[in-house]
Amino acid sequence: MAGGPTEDTGRRTRAPAPDPDARRRRLSDAAVVRAVVWAARIVGLLTVLSAVLPAPRRVLGGELRSTLGLPQGVGLAALVVTAVAGAGLLFLATGLRRRKQRAWWVATGTATFLLVVNVLHVVDQRRGIVACVLVAALLGALLATRRQFVARADPGGLGRAVRTLVQFGLSGFLVVWVLLALNPRRLLDDPSVAAQAAQAALSLIGITGPVTFAPAAGWLDDLTAAAGLTFGVVAVVTAGYHLLRSPEPRPSLEPADEQRLRELLDHPGGDSLGYFALRRDKAAVFAPGGRSAVSYRVLAGVALASGDPVGDVGAWPGAIESFLASCTRYGWSPAVLGCSERGATAWAKAGLDALELGDEAVLDTTAFTLDGRPMRGVRQTVNRMQRIGHTVAVTRLADCTGEERTDLAARALRWRGEEPERGFSMASSRVADPADPDAVVVTAARDGAPSGMLQLVPWGPDGLSLDLMVRDPGADNGINELMIAGLMAAAPGLGVRRVSLNFAVFRSALERGERIGAGPVARTWARLLRVASRWWQIDSLYRFNAKFRPAWHPRYVLFPAVRDLPRILLVALEAEGFGGRPPAVLRLLRR
Question: Residue 423 and residue 468: Cα distance in Å, rounded?
């Protein structure tokens, strides 16, 4: 992964100013939605308590069976229906928080059902007024805020919801029916096939059916009831998930948007991660007037942007507002990965919270040298590699022939082997592509045999950002140091003044933990990071970068609220190629 700081070296041009009231209106709407969400959570929690605990049931009037005059045999069903309605409101609160239209419809229907039940109970028993008032208040709030819930649902979600409901329901029905059919001696009065089918169907909603079990077969009664109810609950939950799931479009960058982004990248003072906005598994949203843009990818309901907005800094607020409006429209949680301090400030003004994620190493080609004691280790490594026959070549991709580009791409793929592609915010996802003529390729060879390769993409007119670093698995240790040293030696001839190397996650935490006098918390945190380095390149990447004595520039992750941070970090790991949802799950969700 690579990246770099942001500098404003050019004159800032004026862009159409965003609506000054847009952010205020958005925050006001968010407060209204937040109140409705908490109302749904409170009513849902009290409804569940009224179904499972006797004291709240007496106070709130949650006795559904007696209210509707149902027979004693459906007592469990009454509790199940009440508990499912309450749990449904708790579940729907998440969809309401993301302002989803379908969540509003289902929550309104659930609140209407609960209100009818509670009104009947008040009329019949003169009890349950508290519950009736609370549910009526929730229903009124939902109806009054109807226009706030505008997020569109996944177009295929309804079909998947019906499919999963039928599949799990049918599976539960068959499991219970087979259990009954295989144990006829444990059933009294020799029930017919129709009676067994009715028992299996009713078990899905927790109702006792017409089948009577022998006294010694109580375990079978419990097993069939538990199996049927489990399948029924799973069917409802999975169907609800698909019904309310946010759309996750297939990642792609339209050719017209790519061309517009390339034009914005010519704007002076751009971010070193700007070129990675051209990844073809990202989409882009533009500011009014088109002078700035935010590139992003949607994963698991999170719209993950990376780096700073591209283009004119004065138009950043417009691009950010357009991105947040898209998130509201589709029910996505906005997040930003790896933006600079200036970018984090712009995002924070739009209402997101910031957390320092790590630092990136940036080398100044005019000051870089292998001389001096601090560079002794790198200098010795480079000299050793040169003595045993290694050479380095540095060239612009535009100067490579088509055959050479094909060989470079095939070589990188072969050296990577079965390892998945790493990088999202700091990788272009392509190697030696003709679309990147200004990219620089560094190759190393020993006695004519290729042994390593770097690819760097443009960072403004005088900078490069590390995009790819691969080597032959059998190459000598020190090949990466040799290639970086060769790049820095050739940089002045290429007109390159700054080079951004790898991004070191939690670098400052590792450095603080190593200082003399570091406290127990800092030392423990650094120790945990070194343990995690067994699986992820945290400590090793920091130490590799530190060899070159770079300037460190902080990078941040932005998120709407702390409760969203764990999901955002998991999505970031999936986007960067370090785990995530299994491919089978992704194929199922995209069918």
Answer: 9
Q: Are 335 and 558 in contact (CB under 8 A)?
A: yes
What is the C-alpha separation between 424 and 306, in angstroms, rounded?
A: 8
How many C-beta atoms surround the C-beta of residue 256 within 10 A? 9
Task: For residue 105, give the amino acid letter.
Answer: W
Residue 547 to residue 565: CA distance in whole angstroms: 32
- Give the count of beta carbons closer than 10 Å to the beta carbon of residue 535: 9
DSSP 21: T
SS3 at position 258 = helix
Question: Could you give the 3-state DSSP secondary structure of residue 572?
Answer: helix
The DSSP code for 359 is E
What gap in Å lies between CA 259 and CA 466, rounded to an integer?
Answer: 22
Instruction: Let me know: does 499 contact 442? Beta carbons within 8 Å.
Output: no
3-state helix/strand/coil string of 92-161: HHHHHHCCEHHHHHHHHHHHHHHHHHHHHHHHHHCCCHHHHHHHHHHHHHHHHCHHHCCECCCCCHHHHH
25 exposure class (CB count in 10 Å sphere: 0-12, 13-18, 19+): exposed
Q: Is 536 helix (H, G, I), strand (E, B) or coil?
A: coil
481, 387 contact by CB (below 8 A)? no
Report yes or no: 478 and 377 within 8 Å, Cβ to Cβ.
no
Angle in degrees, CA 367, 369, 371, rounded to 5? 135
Give the 3-state secondary structure of residue 430: coil
Q: What is the DSSP string of 155-223?
A: TTHHHHHHHHHHHHHHHHHHHHHHHHHT-GGGBTT---HHHHHHHHHHHTTT---S--B-GGGHHHHHH
Using one digit for the tens of pLDDT, what is the confidence trace for 485-537? 999 999 999 999 999 987 877 777 777 777 766 777 777 777 787 777 677 77
Which residue from 25, 26, 28, 46 is spatially nearest to 137, judged by alpha carbons? 46
181's tokens? 């059919």
Q: Which residue is it, tokens 């051209």?
A: 278
- Residues 98-133 pLDDT 10s: 888 888 999 999 889 888 877 876 776 666 687 788
pLDDT tens profile 175-213: 999 999 888 888 888 888 898 898 899 888 777 788 888
Distance CA(127)–CA(137), nearest Å, equals 18
Task: Find, among 301, 303, 265, the residue nearest to 285 by Cα.
Answer: 303
